[in-house]
Amino acid sequence: MQRYENAVEWLKKWDTFSLKLGMERMAWMLEKLGHPERLLRSVHIGGTNGKGSTLTFLESILRQAGYSVGTFTSPSLGAFNERIKKDGKPVTDEALCRAIEMVRPHAEALGATEHGEPTEFEVITAVAIVYFAKIDPCDFVLFEVGLGGLHDSTNVLLPMLTIITNVGWDHVEQLGPTLADIAREKAGIIKPGVPVITGAEGEAETIIQTTAAERRAKLYRLGHEFQIDGVERTEDGEVYDFRSPFSRYERLTIRMAGRHQVINAALAVMAADYLRNFFAVDIEEEALRDGLKRAFWPGRFEKISERPLVILDGAHNPDGMRALADEVRRRYPNRRLHLLFAAFKDKDCAAMLAELNDVADRVVLTTFDHPRASRPSALMSAVPEGMRAEEAGDWQTAYHRMLEVMTDEDMLLITGSLHFVGTVRQALGVSDPPLARS
After folding, report:
1. Domain of 395, in residue numbers
2. Residue-wise pLDDT tens for the chain (438 aa)?
């Protein structure tokens, strides 16, 4: 335990919040480590929203087909180890310590070079690559981009396939100021000759298309090279039809609610289609269907109580909040909505709250234990005209007080930040459904 605590404490010493552009530090560390990234059969997943859900759908499909699958995601909603998983199980303390010990001397030596010290995320990315390449190899590794794409530490990968879910307004200070700027950053993960699957639209789609053409990367676009049709809402999920140049599936079922989740699932199915047809990955239709049904990603329109109805959703930018508001209208048009909201200081909270203005009947602004968390008083300045909001310094007290006044005709939505949703999940002891763990 002491060894593990020391290792995690060492990880936390690195610069957490600043964004250092450039891939020089990652390239330097990986060269010293013998280029472990070249040993991985990886899929690289970027985009503004839906990265984690798309990764989860594809992971579940591959696992149901009998393959071992590693995943690297951020941020985790629980313990640190959950960022690095193999076959759904977090990396063990022992294995994490071994990977950190392999990276540690090179990360520390990097500070003495012209490149300067690495960031925390760069070190964690190197640890994940070393773990999957040298300690516990698996058939496939799915990497989620941390921020942006072009300058993200995961962009050292040489993937089999690239997925860009969508492009929207988030991290504008680092990636903006225009949507075109953000799209170019996201498109920066496209590698020469490596196929790209995307659900992006409009100007962003054009930029991705141009970048793919320049790098001679085959492009598969939702609504063009592959399609979804016949979307139907079920009690806890969605049903839809899918067609691509390689296959046609009717009545595919997912249990993550929302039209946006249908898009995420379709991206994963297209990825599975490509891997099967061009890399001879053995994925039978039964495995694909079962994988989609089993896929679960915590904090995505997650119902944690039926009576009273309580839903957690990690929407943390305006586009994500718009999709969330649309789903509330679609599924619960006649419910009185109580909103418990907390977010980071650097988010566009005014735009996020504006998306919920016409669906929320009662709004409580709160905070949580994180250095970037906004105070309720600061959130009040972001409240749009017409929205009646109140402050609560302690989210748990506010949560229980809201439950006390709710009826069966009401619902409580907890949202604003993935970290906040993770905090709530952990404090309330919410566990994944059994099907997701099997």
Report:
1. 302-437
2. 688 888 888 988 886 655 667 789 999 999 999 999 999 999 999 998 899 999 999 999 999 999 999 999 987 666 778 899 999 999 999 999 999 999 999 999 998 999 999 999 999 999 999 999 999 999 999 999 987 788 889 999 999 999 999 988 665 556 657 888 899 989 999 999 999 999 999 999 999 999 999 999 999 999 999 999 999 999 889 999 999 999 999 999 999 998 999 999 999 999 999 999 999 999 999 999 999 999 998 898 999 999 999 999 999 889 899 999 999 999 999 999 999 999 999 899 999 999 999 999 999 999 999 989 999 999 999 999 999 999 999 999 999 999 999 999 999 999 999 999 999 999 999 887 766 544
> 120: helix, coil or strand?
helix
Find the CATH number of the domain harbouring 326. Answer: 3.90.190.20
Closest CA to 283 of 62, 86, 59, 70: 62
Q: How many domains does the chain have?
A: 2
- Provide the token pair at 105: 């001397």
Residues 182 and 37 in one domain: yes
- Compute the distance between CA of residue 101 and CA of residue 33 in angstroms, rounded to an integer: 12
Amino acid at 340: L
Q: Is the pTM of this model over 0.85?
A: yes
Residues 275 and 316 in one domain: no
Q: Which residues contact 418 (CB under 8 A, 6 or more apart)?
A: 75, 77, 299, 314, 316
**CATH number of the domain within which 231 lies:** 3.40.1190.10
Q: Are 420 and 316 members of one domain?
A: yes
